[in-house]
Amino acid sequence: MKRQLQRQGQIRDDGSPALQRRPPPQPRTAPGGGARRTGPAEFFKDVRAELRKVAWPSRSEVVNYSTVVLFTLVVLTALIFVLDLGFQKWVTFLFKA
Questions:
Q1: Is 78 left (phi over 0), alpha (psi -120 to 50) or beta?
Q2: Does a structural domain hold residue 79?
Q3: pTM over 0.90
Q4: Mean pLDDT of 72-77
Q5: Count of Cβ atoms closer than 10 Å to residue 5 Cβ
Q6: What is the pLDDT of residue 36?
Q7: Which residue has the higher pLDDT, 82 or 34?
Q8: Total number of domains in the chain
Q9: Which of 31-40, 43-52, 83-92 has the lowest mean pLDDT?
Q10: What's the chain look like in SS3?
Q11: How far is CA 17 from CA 3, 20, 21, 77, in A?
Q12: Is residue 36 left, alpha or beta, with left meaning phi > 0 and alpha meaning psi from -120 to 50?
């Protein structure tokens, strides 16, 4: 283990820890240069171009997904209500006796 650490430069020949010198951190820049700022008009033009690339769902898909979400919401709400009511009755029974 000692030889391996020496080869990696983590300890010196006498076994004392070697000082690690880290290079100074490089300043971070935004991807793609980041030197040029865009104006509001160009920003909204780019947003509109990106929104055209989105695969929007059809009306029937939105209705189907909404139905599934609402049904799941109702079922989980009912389940939590029943569990809460059951725990309430059980705790009330335990502490009344």
A1: alpha
A2: yes
A3: no
A4: 98
A5: 14
A6: 78
A7: 82
A8: 1
A9: 31-40
A10: CHHHHHHHCCECCCCCECCCCCCCCCCCCCCCCCCCCCCHHHHHHHHHHHHHCCCCCCHHHHHHHHHHHHHHHHHHHHHHHHHHHHHHHHHHHHHHC
A11: 13, 9, 12, 61
A12: beta
Contacts (Cβ under 8 Å, ≥6 apart) of 5 = 11
The lowest-confidence range among 24-28, 36-40, 49-53, 69-73 is: 24-28
Q: Which residue has the tokens 């240069």?
A: 33
In a domain, 30, yes or no: no
- Check whether 32 has a pLDDT greater than 70: no
Domain enclosing residue 85, as ranges: 73-97
Q: Which tokens in the block code for residue 41?
A: 């008009």
* CA dist list (Å): 21 to 9, 10, 24, 25, 28: 11, 11, 9, 12, 20
Q: Residue 26: inside a domain, yes or no?
A: no
Indicate whether 95 belongs to any domain.
yes
